[in-house]
Amino acid sequence: MAGDRDDAASFESALFDDEDPVGGNLKEKVAEAWRDFARHLVEALRDLGNGTTLDLTLDPTASGTGDAVYSIQVTGEDGDQLAATAVSNADLPAAYRLDRTVIAEIVALGWAPPGVVAGSGESFGLRVGKNESPQLSRLIMRTLRDIYGAPHPAFLTYLAHDAEGRVAPVPALGVARSLASIVDADGDGVVDVVRTGGAGSLTELAEQTEDLALYDKVTTVVARLMKTTPEELPIDPDGDIGIRSGSAMVFVRVRDNPPLVDVFSPILTEVEPTERLYVKLSELTNRMPIGRLYCTNDTVWASVPVFGRDFQATHLMLAVQVMTGLADELDDRLHGEFGGKRFFGEGDKPKPAIAGESERTGMYL
């Protein structure tokens, strides 16, 4: 009985200690994910073989950029050279083209205008030696984040291939999603992307996860919900699984002591904590069948816990479904009433070009 009381106290402490929010410092969390991506990209660039091209793309289905595909390509060349290109307005839909201010910024970062570097065509280009891989990695990171508006590297996809389209090995790039395991290159070098997955029955899912460790159970369940594989889940350096839900971001974190799964979301950031806000969050929490809303520092969080002991896949599936719907609805509602920033607000991606508009492309961070 004493052990049960200790476990309950530990659970309560982990769940309700507002001094240690489930997501930690959000800005630092996102910044560390970018740093981790850049560190791994340096290794990939140094090892890029002659004739091998690495494609890095902001996934339009995850980022909400519609038909706009923001991408960077790097190809290994003779003499330990790297040739890189970044998409320009020539390949972007009219509503998502970069304005003059943003074009000036991308050139200031180090890219040459389209057509200046041999072989760059209508894209921004540059050519450097592999010994400059750290500088190129940082340039690519800043272009994807600050110019193309990627809010988090979890929404990047990457694939390395040779001139015939055959997949080439490349080190994992942090939480960015590799397309290698879901790509089939046939004899003609034609790439056919097929997403894996399948709903399956809950009984089968329970049988599959019965003997797994808690973390593996969680990744299996979330992968099933997202119709992908555990290996392809976007997992950040903290071990949190990221799920895009409209204008909100939902994370799934596994805690070992006590066994607990946190399903949480930073509903708003840069919001002013006021008595009216705390009252509102209390009222909303009281209406929630599970979970709670709270504010720490300048961030409003939503959290739904799932017990790790005697783990039930259906409980996690329900928590994820509740949170993804709740976060996407509440961030809009609370933003309209209290201001602050949503994870994927209207200003968090490149804005449509408007004649005479001088405002720079918006980013989350």
TrEMBL record:
<dbReference type="InterPro" id="IPR054343">
    <property type="entry name" value="TY-Chap_M"/>
</dbReference>
<feature type="domain" description="TY-Chap N-terminal">
    <location>
        <begin position="32"/>
        <end position="156"/>
    </location>
</feature>
<feature type="domain" description="TY-Chap central">
    <location>
        <begin position="217"/>
        <end position="345"/>
    </location>
</feature>
<dbReference type="Pfam" id="PF22552">
    <property type="entry name" value="TY-Chap3"/>
</dbReference>
<dbReference type="Pfam" id="PF22551">
    <property type="entry name" value="TY-Chap1"/>
</dbReference>
<protein>
    <recommendedName>
        <fullName>YbjN domain-containing protein</fullName>
    </recommendedName>
</protein>
<dbReference type="InterPro" id="IPR054344">
    <property type="entry name" value="TY-Chap_N"/>
</dbReference>
